[in-house]
From TrEMBL:
It comes from the Eukaryota. Residues 419-428 have a biased composition (Pro residues). CDD domains: PH-GRAM1_TCB1D9_TCB1D9B, PH-GRAM2_TCB1D9_TCB1D9B. May act as a GTPase-activating protein for Rab family protein(s). GO terms for biological process: system process. It is found in: Membrane. The gene is LOC105904204. Residues 876-911 form the EF-hand domain. This is TBC1 domain family member 9B. GO terms for molecular function: calcium ion binding; GTPase activator activity.
Length: 1237
């Protein structure tokens, strides 16, 4: 490429001049290409270690004038071909012009101006793309693509200098982290190391420090481990690797590719060696931490944060911390954890103003809300800019972010909805009067105004509960005092005092309100008024898998509670679950959701319960309730790791019994609601909404710790489960004012003597005392580690399930099927990030069985078939793969699943000769043979369908034809005689046998196995295509000549058979069936006599022409002409000559056609018969039995098709080959030699 002219002082240092003229010099870097000796090795090593641009651009062109010792670099190139094009352009366009100049300075000025002008023209398109990346980074990305053969779609995120440990020897080089791969390259003294690992293959990513590998990063895949060390900043590198691995795991889980954030604000100046993608990922990491800290929605983006102080009226002091500003919120978090936290939605803000500065209160900022609350911030570094940003966000904040007329936003929906996203009408269905029709939900429903517990307690008679009622009143009063001091609602100050009140239990009257507040669901509900009501109207009445599962589980949701023993509670639960399944089809419905939602409905209205369920499923318990409960499995792994750290002795014993994985799943999925008495579990739910998942881990560890002695003494899994079950059954809440609800699990597991009761408040207190040091960021780190394990384990399980399901229908071994599945899935995943004709989300349906979840399109199938197919057909391979794809694509959706893929390959590799020929035969019939490939195929098919002649009869002789006619005549005659009999007797004989009909119906439902009799006939144009394919198949075989002889003989024989069949078809169509006329037996030279009339010559000349064309395609040199006037050099290839002689040696019995004319074409000179020979004969046809019988006459063909082929070697080659998806490498020195000659 052309580069900005730069001065070069030492032109020949480390460079070799290859071409020169008075004004320009073309140079090659020492060490590049062949030769170079030790100096070349040393230069190459220095280029890699020092990250020299010469490694990626080993060619350059310098400008020099006269005796001047100053050179100017004006162009560089990654390949010799590229730099040669620049050199030729300079010679053709500048040399003559430069020779006119007299002054050397003028020459240099002109050249520099010309090059800069060319670059300006080329950069116009680049400027339109707003490329932010620095020149140094773009150079590194170009180097990455060249070294590893990556396409333009693969984006580099960052690159680092490090050492890769190969054995015990470190190799210094460069680590390239792209969106989808981790790559490493090293070149030291001639030793080249190249490593490419897909992120989707990573099973473990760890940062550790050992004696052997000091402070290194270990990247593990299923088969290998890779160690990298000597990073300048290992923490930053490891965080980025974690992010990229997380993106890959999300891709495996949801089949969604990474998409860059186009709305990311541009930096004020171009950052050195920092890509836009790296900035994007850094911003994503900050957004995730920000949203998790303040429980905000997934679309909230952090704009910035700054240090400041906040005046806390309850403590009468300024608290040091940080202010966070995003598009919808202003948040504050104290530096000291739990001291103070504040969330101010911009929708609540009325005034933002700068207060007067003083020595006590520098740079203050006052924010007032609509409920007359003032918040005073101070010590702001850039107050003016901050006020401007907040003002901008306030201007963009509408009064109502969503109204009933808007389209319903679904979970995961982007700004541009995908084709799979359901769309909604602009308004809900209405009656003729114009008012909305509320068929399923209205604000007048009791559950729309109050929680179920309030409804039923209102109807129940009031009873004095004594001390318990007094305790409840005291709790309510404590919260009212707290609201008075710290505020009420979203803008409440959240301090350690708030946590103490939550741990002491939330009063039942405030439970719904505080759950909404602490979970962040109140913000979503406030910004989406009317959303739930319209969603219910859209969702109810639909029937799908989720609604069926919901109906099945409705009456299993807390059946012991009287609120769900009638239709009111059941109907409310149905509406909430159905609405959420419709909002988020990726999750739909999971069994544990009914238990959690039923508890939410007891304390909240329907709409509030819905938004709490959204917060649980999409933020607080991510991936818990999808089809594979990945989130719960991840946290189960985290719990095991925490048990190993906190209770090591118990962990070892429990692992031997296999208990931890069994108990923890139900604890996490239902938040203890299914294993603990209701009023005790609800207290844990209170704490969970405030603390998050940390509380569940703490309590789980406390339960194990409380039962450690008994668990250590247990001998099997059942005994350990009984110990834990009885303990949890007897965790009681002695402060509840509600009547006790019988716990079904406790009734089933109660023993002879009741165990002691455990106060739930004491259990929570104990969990904080013993395990309160758990931190949310540590849990997230452990979750990442476990997520890799869990998702890769699920992928392995899916692979085994697929192999088990398909192995009975396939002849491949288990190992072969597993390898094929890996390749098939890799091809599907590659389409996610390198583009395809259809999006991967359209191809991936999690509701389908594993066998049908992943599908590939024709292009990807062609890439796999070209490597794995047993029949190599050269340039014809693409055509053959397209036909095979159409044959396998039974539902005609343009995609095939793994089962269909294996079915096609299995017959080719492990079928007998008949099976292989059947596949080959069907590849040349519709639908495999498309109309564009054979235009007359449909006409021929229609001709044979309309013809009275039965399709199954092979026309081998007059005798066969006559016997068939006579047989049919006898059947017609018998039918006529029977028609004259007594019809009443006939009716009596036909007694209805229902069992018989049932058997017949069952047989019809059974999949019919296709026989060779079921295959349709093949017309002449299809036969020509078959001959082309066979000819290409044999072009690379060691027995090429023998196979050519054999296929020519078979083609000749099939032509005669087709001609004989055509003759009798035409004759038979003009005669009556019952009056057959004797015909003379055809002699051997019958077809040869047909040749003299032109018809046989027509068919055979087409075959000759087809074989010649196929031969020229596969054997002839590039650019060789097919005419008779081609040069001698172009036709002197040994293989080509021998192949010509095979066809022209009279094997096809074309006696009246010259050898050279047959090969070049049949329509070149002449007669009307010859011109008629250029069109296929529509009356000509053959059957599969005839093709098979003809093939069996040639032993060399039998050996070819019976030969066993090894797919393992091809799969190994496919794994190594990346050229299919990636660009080819640069031209070699040998290619340049051809170019320059």
């Amino acid at each position: 490429m052309w580069i900005t002219p730069e001065e070069v002082l030492l032109a020949n240092a480390l460079w070799v001049s290859e071409r020169a003229n008075p004004f320009f010099i073309l140079q090659r870097r020492k060490g590049h290409g062949k030769g170079g000796g030790f100096t070349g090795l040393l230069v190459g090593t220095l280029d890699v270690v020092l990250d020299s641009s010469a490694r990626v651009a080993p060619y350059r062109i310098l400008h020099q004038t006269g005796d001047s010792q100053i050179f100017w670099s004006i162009a560089c190139g990654t390949s010799r071909k590229e730099i040669t094009e620049h050199w030729e352009w300079l010679e053709a366009n500048l040399l003559q012009t430069l020779s006119i100049f007299d002054n050397e300075d003028d020459i240099t000025t002109f050249v520099k101006g010309k090059i800069q002008g060319i670059m300006a023209e080329e950069n116009k398109s680049l400027l339109a793309q707003d490329d932010e990346d620095s020149g140094k980074f773009r150079e590194a990305e170009l180097k990455m693509r060249k070294l590893f053969g990556m396409p333009e779609e693969e984006k580099l995120v960052n690159y680092y200098s490090c050492s890769y440990w190969k054995g015990r020897v470190p190799r210094q080089g460069w680590l390239y982290l792209t969106v989808n791969h981790i790559c490493f390259y090293s070149f030291l003294l001639g030793k080249e190391v190249t490593l490419v690992v897909q992120w989707t293959d990573v099973t473990q990513l760890e940062k550790n420090a050992t004696l052997l590998f000091p402070e290194s990063v270990r990247v593990s895949t299923r088969g290998t481990q890779h160690f990298f060390s000597m990073f300048l900043n290992i923490n930053d590198t490891f965080k980025l690797m974690e992010q990229l691995a997380n993106i890959a795991m999300r891709q495996l889980l949801d089949n969604e590719a990474f998409s860059a954030d186009r709305t990311l604000p541009k930096p004020c100046k171009t950052l050195k060696n920092v890509s836009a993608l790296k900035r994007d990922l850094d911003a994503r990491a900050k957004n995730e931490r920000y949203r998790a800290l303040f429980r905000l929605t997934q679309d909230e983006r952090l704009d910035g944060h700054t240090d400041c102080t906040l005046w806390t009226p309850f403590a009468k002091m300024h608290v040091v911390g940080q202010m966070f500003v995003s598009n919808n919120y202003i948040c504050f978090a104290s530096r000291e954890e739990d001291m103070c936290q504040l969330i101010i939605p911009l929708r609540e803000v009325s005034i933002v103003e700068k207060a007067d500065s003083s020595s006590v209160l520098p740079s203050p900022l006052s924010i007032s809300t609509k409920n007359k609350t003032n918040f005073l911030f101070a010590n702001l570094k850039d107050r003016d800019f901050l006020v401007q940003r907040i003002s901008d966000f306030l201007q963009r904040t509408p009064e109502r972010l969503w109204s009933e007329g808007d389209q319903l936003p679904l979970s995961g929906q982007s700004e541009t909805p995908s084709p799979t996203t359901p769309t909604f009408p602009s308004s809900p269905p209405s009656l003729g009067s114009g008012e909305p029709l509320h068929r399923y939900y209205s604000s007048d429903l009791p559950t729309a105004k109050h929680g179920l517990l309030h409804i039923y307690q209102k109807d129940a008679p009031e009873e004095e509960m004594g001390p318990k009622a007094a305790k409840e009143k005291m709790k309510e009063e404590s919260w009212n005092i707290h609201f008075f001091e710290f505020g009420r609602g979203v803008c409440m100050y959240r301090t350690s005092k708030t946590r103490e009140l939550v741990l002491n239990g939330i009063p039942e009257s405030l439970r719904g309100e505080l759950w909404l507040l602490f979970s962040g669901a109140q913000n979503e509900m406030a910004t989406h008024p009317g959303y739930y009501a319209e969603l219910v109207e859209q969702a109810m009445g639909r029937c799908n898998l989720a609604t069926e599962e919901i109906e099945r589980d409705l009456h299993r949701s807390m059946p012991e509670h009287h609120a769900f023993q009638n239709e009111m509670g059941i109907a409310a639960l149905r509406r909430v679950l159905t609405a959420y399944a419709y909002r988020n089809p990726n999750i739909g419905y999971c069994q544990a959701m009914n238990i959690v939602t039923s508890v939410l409905l007891l304390y909240c209205t329907e709409e509030e319960a819905f938004w709490l369920l959204v917060a649980l499923c999409e933020r607080m318990l991510p991936d818990y309730y999808n089809t594979r409960v990945v989130g719960a499995l991840v946290d189960q792994g985290v719990f095991e790791e925490l048990t190993r750290e906190c209770l090591p002795l118990l962990y070892e014993h429990m692992q031997d019994l296999g208990v931890i994985s069994t108990i923890s799943l139900s604890w996490f999925l239902t938040l203890f609601l299914s294993v603990m008495p209701f009023h005790s579990a609800v207290l844990l739910v209170d704490c969970f909404f405030y603390e998050g998942i940390k509380l569940i881990f703490q309590v789980s560890l406390a339960v194990l710790h409380a039962n450690m002695e008994q668990l250590m003494a247990s001998n099997d899994e059942g005994e350990a489960m009984t110990i834990l079950g009885r303990y949890l059954d007897n965790v009681v809440n002695k402060q509840t004012v509600s009547p006790p609800i019988p716990h079904l699990h406790a009734l089933l597991t109660s023993g002879d003597e009741p165990p002691p009761e455990i106060d739930v408040f004491e259990l929570v207190k104990s969990s904080y005392e013993k395990f309160g040091s758990l931190r949310a960021d540590v849990i997230e780190q452990m979750r990442f580690k476990q997520r890799l394990k869990v998702i890769q384990s699920l992928e392995d399980t899916a692979k085994r399930s697929v192999v088990r399901a398909i192995m009975t229908d396939s002849a491949f071994s288990i190992e072969e099927l597993e390898d094929l599945y890996v390749l098939f899935k890799a091809k599907h995943i590659m389409s996610c990030y390198w583009g395809a004709s259809s999006t991967a989300t359209e191809r991936h349906d999690p509701s389908l069985p594993y066998l049908e979840q992943y599908r590939i399109d024709p292009g990807q199938f062609g890439e796999l078939f070209s490597v794995l197919g047993p029949w190599g057909c050269g340039v014809h391979t693409a055509t053959l793969s397209s036909r095979l794809f159409r044959l396998l694509d039974q539902n005609k959706d343009g995609l095939i699943n793994f089962k269909e893929f294996v079915t096609g390959l299995s017959g080719m590799y492990h079928g007998d000769m008949t099976e292989k020929l059947k596949i080959l035969y069907k590849l040349h019939l519709p639908p495999a043979l498309c109309p564009e490939e054979a235009e007359s195929a449909l006409e021929a098919t229609q001709f044979f369908t309309d013809d009275d002649t039965p399709e199954d009869s092979p026309f081998l002789s007059h005798l066969d034809f006559l016997v068939q006619e006579v047989t049919e005549g006898e059947e017609v005659k018998e039918a006529g005689d029977s028609g004259n009999g007594d019809s009443e007797d006939k009716k009596e004989e036909k007694v209805k046998d229902y069992k018989y009909y049932l058997r017949m119906w069952a047989k019809e439902k059974e999949p019919k196995k296709e026989t060779i009799k079921d295959l349709p006939r093949m017309n002449q144009e299809q036969f020509i295509e078959l001959c082309k394919t066979l000819y290409n198949m044999f072009s690379e075989d060691p027995l090429e000549q023998e196979l050519y002889h054999a296929i020519a003989t078979v083609a000749s024989l099939l032509l005669r058979i087709g001609e004989v069949g055509k003759k009798f078809t035409n004759n038979g169509a003009n005669k009556k069936v019952l009056e057959p006329q004797p015909q003379p037996q055809p002699s051997v030279d019958g077809p040869e006599k047909e040749d003299s009339n032109g018809e046989g010559s027509s068919a055979q000349s087409l075959i000759c022409k087809a074989l010649a064309e196929a031969q020229l395609e596969s054997v002839g040199p590039p650019g060789a002409t097919s005419g008779a006037g081609g040069s001698d050099e172009e036709g002197k290839d040994d293989t080509s000559v021998s192949s010509y002689s095979v066809v022209s040696a009279g094997e096809l019995q074309c006696e009246d056609i010259a050898d050279d004319t047959v090969l070049v074409g049949c329509g070149g000179n002449g007669s009307g018969d010859r011109r008629r020979g250029s069109a296929p004969d529509a009356d000509w046809s053959i059957t599969f039995e005839q093709v098979l019988a003809s093939m069996l006459t040639e032993p060399v063909l039998v050996d070819y098709f019976e030969r066993k082929r090894d797919i393992l070697a091809k799969m190994a080659a496919c794994k190594m080959q990346r050229a299919v998806e990636r660009q080819t490498s640069s031209s070699s020195d040998h290619e340049l030699a051809q170019l320059s000659t």
